[in-house]
Design goal:
This protein is α+β, with helices and mostly antiparallel strands. Helices cover 32% and strands 34% of the residues. It has helices spanning 2-13, 22-35, 37-42, and strands spanning 49-55, 58-63, 66-75, 84-94. The protein is elongated and about 70 Å long.
Length: 99
């Protein structure tokens, strides 16, 4: 009985952190980027997304017209579950100097 009591105390006294495996975390981040209204409002439907590339600090979206970096800022959390994050869309870099 004492061992069970000790195990229960240890389980509830330690702070447990769990995040998704990297593959699933990146899927969540990319889905959030694609669903974000800022991306959809600024998008030009004549230019498809050619590539979404993971870089240090976030992602780069590349179209045939521009590339844009999206910063991913992770929010500290105290409970188990997927890592929480905020997206920050940086200024677009146009590939053609006419824009």
């Amino acid at each position: 009985m004492k061992k069970l009591f000790l195990i229960i105390i240890l389980l509830f006294s330690t702070q447990l952190h769990a995040i998704l495996p990297p593959f699933y975390q990146s899927v969540n981040e990319i889905e959030a980027i694609l669903k974000d209204s800022k991306l959809q409002d600024d998008a030009d439907s004549a230019y498809p997304i050619l590539e979404i590339m993971k870089v240090e600090g976030g992602y780069i979206i590349i179209t045939s017209r521009y590339q844009q970096k999206i910063e991913v800022k992770y929010i500290p959390q105290e409970l188990m579950g997927p890592a929480k994050f905020e997206l920050n869309f940086l200024e677009k870099n146009y590939l053609d100097s006419c824009y």
